[in-house]
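[Automated response] Your request has been received and processed.

Submitted sequence:
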Amino acid sequence: MMEQVGKVIKADSDGWVTVEVEMKSACSHCSQSESCGTSAISKAFSARVQQFSLPATQAYSPGTLLKLGLPESVVLKAAALVYLLPLLGLFIGGMVGSMLATALDINADASSAIWGVLAALAAWRLGKARAVAMEHDAQPVILANLGTPLVSEPSHCQC
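Generated structure:
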């Protein structure tokens, strides 16, 4: 289970809470963050914030910190779709291009390359759309109530 801390921004009487989660980059967490180009680029962009509406079994007040969980299988399946499907498309497109080149008596290398790239792009778009739908359908769950923060959080991070 992947875990993330979120802050309740709204709670309604129907048993639903709206939680805001700051999506953090993996950069700046290793010892090489000072000399890493990727870390410098990630620091240049502000952190993304996402909001979720979740069913709650108890009442939470705005400002309450909650530990949220999302099954790792959802993230792994989405990553497999986005990365492996285009690779499969590249191979299948290359084979189709090669067969068409043989049948039409044209340059097999160019045909294979063009069909491979086109099939990889089509497979990537398909995989991305399916991964977004899969992640959208996955509902995070509330694992724990962490209480309210002792001090207000600063508006900017000097990570």
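Summary generated for your ticket: The radius of gyration is 23 Å. Residues 72-104 form the longest helix (33 residues).
If you did not submit this request, please reply to this message.
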